[in-house]
Amino acid sequence: MSSSSNRHGGSGVASKQPAVPEPSFSERARTLVHLGRIGSLSTISRKQPGFPFGSVMPYGLDERGRPIFLISTMAMHTQNLQADPRASLLVTQHAGDGDPLGASRVTLVGNVVTIPEPEVADARKLYLARYANSKYWVNFDDFSFYRMDVLDVYYVGGFGVMGWVRASDYDHAQPDPLADAAAGIIEHMNTDHRDALVQLARAHAGVESQEAAMTSVDRLGFHARLKTTDGMRGVRIAFLREVGSASEARKVLVEMVQRARQQP
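^ thats the sequence. predicted structure below, dont judge the formating
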């Protein structure tokens, strides 16, 4: 993790760093923003000076993870930005279990300004690739492309997992290579291989459980939620080696399950 990251519980008391390797907060922030499509943009209100003004905001992303917006001068948030470019963008993970506070989220803080004319063509291409329907209004005179120059990042990975990420770390990080395939991997494991997850938890985390479900997966390993005799418990299990694709993840998981079944 970056030096600006930290982990602590609800009491504010620092906890031990996990022994199992995990992606840094900067990588997780980039991954979440990559997967997201719509965020909550907060600008500084012109009508009520000093107060935040929230808007639902679709966004594209450039190669540095900077959000790109296509917005109209008629929109209140655009008028706010023209008066003061300072803003924040909140992007949240879909809460699959219905608990939004247990889901990951990231807040990008920065200045939102119009994109210079020489860079508009690239921004347009990136944005239209993500939002094809925007072709119907992209050429309207009142619409322009804006970009957030990120100054700071705050990442929350769920209960007790949070920390600031330096803008430079976020800028140089890359989305996890399993980002786009993760949902499919999780669904497959939880639908077809629940018994295998129980075996993996026993062999690789030393935890006996009656039920197990994968909750997240990345290039270094996965998280699982276990039903034990003492209640629900979460564990992190490392892959045998780093993976770079869904096919590599499948091979490693098969190998790990085979090893787990060979153990007494």
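The domain at 5-172 is CATH 2.30.110.10 (Pnp Oxidase; Chain A).
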